[in-house]
Amino acid sequence: MITVTFNHADGRQTRVQGKPGQSLMQLAVASGINEILAECGGSLACGTCHCHLAPEWMGRLPAPQGGEAMMIECVENPDEFSRLSCQVVLEPALDGLVVNLPAAQF
Amino acid sequence: MPALPDSFRPLTRDFAQDPYPAYAALRDLGAPVHFPDFDIWLVGRFADVTRVVQDKTLVRDAGHFMSPQERAAQQRAENFHDMPFHQRFIQTNMLESDGEMHDRLRRFVFREFTPAFVARQRGMIEGFVDSLLNGLEDRQEIDFIEDFAAHIPGHVIGRVLGVPDEDCPQLRLWSERVVSYFDIDRTAEKKARAEQAVAEFHSYLEGLKEARRRAPGSDVMTSLMAALDAGGISEDEMMATCMLILMAGHGSTIDVLGTGMHALLTHPEQMARLRAEPGLMQTGIQEMFRHESPLPFFHRYVTEPCEIAGQRFERGARIGVLYGCANRDPAAFDAPERFDLGRSPNRHLAFGGGAHFCLGNHLARLDMEVIFTKLLARYSRIELVEPPEYKTGLSVRGVKALKIKLQA
Questions:
Q1: How many angstroms away from the CA of B192 is the closest CA of chain A?
Q2: Do B354 and A40 touch (CB under 8 A)?
Q3: Which residues from chain B sit within 8 angstroms of residue A69, using beta carbons?
Q4: Residues B245-262 pLDDT 10s
């Protein structure tokens, strides 16, 4: 299992466990993380599963590519730690991942 | 193989007035059911609809697996043949494409429909809604659709695209004629009207393109022309994209405005709640989309043998996804029949899902937010005069007219 900590904008924390191969978005939706809307369901068509990885985790994942990079330019308050959670696939190396959630997707 | 429920008769008035018992019966079958009128397999449970729209092997464009001869035979079977403009600009577009072509076409217009870009239209929408309401000041009774709601989405999408205000009413007529031919009752008269509408639409857009060439604007037409000049899209793709955006921006938003207003009128406690808590507007609008999804039916083609809800499908099978049915699935929503403006989360499928997720969703929601906010602020009482008649068909959900009384 891979432990992921979601930091909510109001200071609450939710710690959940995901499986390898699951996307970060799927884990968030299945765990009732309502800030992750994921309206298109993970097809790079809506940009509503935006989150910020904790800075120390950013370098441990490949940078956003192609469609994800383009969509990140269009989300609310993007920064250098922005990712679309549907494009982050959980793997054992991500055990302990910390994710900062936006207050709203739009 | 389960049989189609007796109540599932989408061209009848009974179904139009209340399709939800038929949808529930269809969901309860638990497996896809064949709908012979349209030679399509219907899927109505939330989990199954989600699975279909997320699966990249289930596509919109039959060209992925059909030879040109098979495609032509299918066009004849669907009565989509012998309409050259329709085939060129309506049957071939972003919505009817998949994969690389779809993603390329969507990329050129995506930015203009993101929340930040859409938010720039708020002042324009507010001004237009105010001017319409000012024009209704001496009226105590109106048809909410024809006197008010029907004018707004077309005006807004026209501005986004770069169409002059005075031309928007004509665009609405063309859109309606094209869209009405998608439903399952494809008569010769509707076919001729749809083809003529596309031809006129195309001629109009040619003129608009030349006007933008002389005087570029900050609109979608100008962005698409830049893509055309850079070789990113073809001339036909540009025209088809403009038509798609204009059509998608018209009818469905008018329909959900009508059904949303009707739901508020038939749930006065929810209207009172919204007046008391304007912060509920965002979740409220989401609930209007879930409760009465304006585009309840879309389809996909099977390109590789697969199984959906226990039923095996071969290449070429057509799967109909019933968003309006899935959005009332008790397996996905608590008390799904209840109209609850505070429902959250509300992961409905009214905007579809997957790669074809509604491009204009933020614009539609902004239209609705401005309209309901303005109406509730201006009128202390809004009452239903008579129960409305709903449009027949499987592809749309909306009231034909909505007579209401207004009191400041």
A1: 34
A2: yes
A3: none
A4: 999 988 999 999 999 999
